[in-house]
Amino acid sequence: MTESSSTGRIRREPPTYRRVAVAGVTPLTPRLVRVTVGGPELDGLVIEQPAASVRLLLPAPGSSELVMPTWHGNEFLLPDGSRPTIRTLTPLRLDSTTQELDLEIVVHEGGAASAWAQAARPGDKAAISGPGRGYPIDADASGFVLGGDESAIPAIGQLLEMLPADKPVHVIVEVADPAARLELPKHPAATVDWYDLPAGAPPGDALVPAIISTELAPGSRIWAAGEAAAMQRIRRHLLDERNLPRSETWIRGYWKSGRAGDADDD
Ligand SMILES: Cc1cc2nc3c(=O)[nH]c(=O)nc-3n(C[C@H](O)[C@H](O)[C@H](O)COP(=O)(O)OP(=O)(O)OC[C@H]3O[C@@H](n4cnc5c(N)ncnc54)[C@H](O)[C@@H]3O)c2cc1C
User: Fold this and answer.
1) Nearest to 133 by CA among 254, 56, 49, 55
2) 17, 42, 229, 262: which could form a disulfide with 127 (CB 3.0–4.6 Å)?
């Protein structure tokens, strides 16, 4: 949420960070690690919609100490003025009894969150802020298309668990490594198509044509998330070429190729 001012962008302060510790680490595939975080400060966290977001605050790379940042009008800064390591993830299972939250983090080259997830051990410190808004499922839709790359697999899994059982769902997933394929939650009317990104091809090179060639029944809704430039191509196709009403689409850039930090263009 942003407001303009003569001095630049003033952003509303995000929800306070809740300190957590790693409670468990479960490798799901060589490309995806589930990290369960927990702690009493998760008390009161409520996540109502699927495919929502939380911000994960991490210790500086190479350190195990978690320094809490403070809000400076439009960004969080550490006491020394540097930017903290913060990444956006999909909040998955939230257990209010054990006060635990599951996150699933893609393993890829050169990422702070990716490296943290691979090295995470019980007791490691982090913090969570959120949630940010998720996907409002339209119960009147005739069906759903869910598209994404590996970063969207956690959200797609959660959506499959929550979409109406009697509505057809077409899932289209691009993986940069075949080892990223995994068993998604069952949905009685879902078909799942996996696409391998050819080695060296830019992200989205398999996903975008797959979505462009997908048949969309009237009244269906399309949800897609992944690399920002690929999402922009999908958005343009759906809105400008297919002339779909914006309200029938939900397209969100999750990361930017070649740039650290998420690409939340929401
Ligand atoms: C609403 C929302 C929900 C999200 N949910 C999830 C989630 O549940 N799980 C998840 O893993 N990600 C999720 N993401 C995406 C995640 O925030 C970004 O991928 C983030 O950049 C990962 O941080 P990192 O520290 O690993 O890499 P960074 O340090 O941010 O990036 C380092 C380099 O890796 C590249 N990179 C970043 N992400 C990927 C990737 N997925 N594959 C290949 N290269 C990449 C960057 O372009 C950069 O060159 C979500 C993003 C949003 C906005």
Assistant:
1) 49
2) 17
Best residue among 53, 102, 106, 150 to mutate for probing ligand 1, ranked by most atoms within 8 Å of CB: 106
Flag whether pLDDT at 263 surpasses 70: no
Determine if ligand 1 sits within 6 Å of the CB of residue 262: yes
**CA 214 to CA 217: how far, in whole Å?**
10
CATH number for the domain running over 2-131: 2.40.30.10
Nearest protein Cα to ligand 1, atom 41: 151
Residue 83 one-letter amino acid: R
Could you tell me the fold of the domain covering 144-262? Rossmann fold (3.40.50)
Cβ of 53 closer than 6 Å to ligand 1, yes or no, is yes
- Is the separation of the CB atoms in 197 and 226 below 8 Å? no
Residue 226: pLDDT above 90?
yes
| Residue 261 pLDDT | 85
Which pLDDT score, from 0 to 100, does residue 9 have? 65
* Ligand 1 centroid from CA 151, angstroms: 6
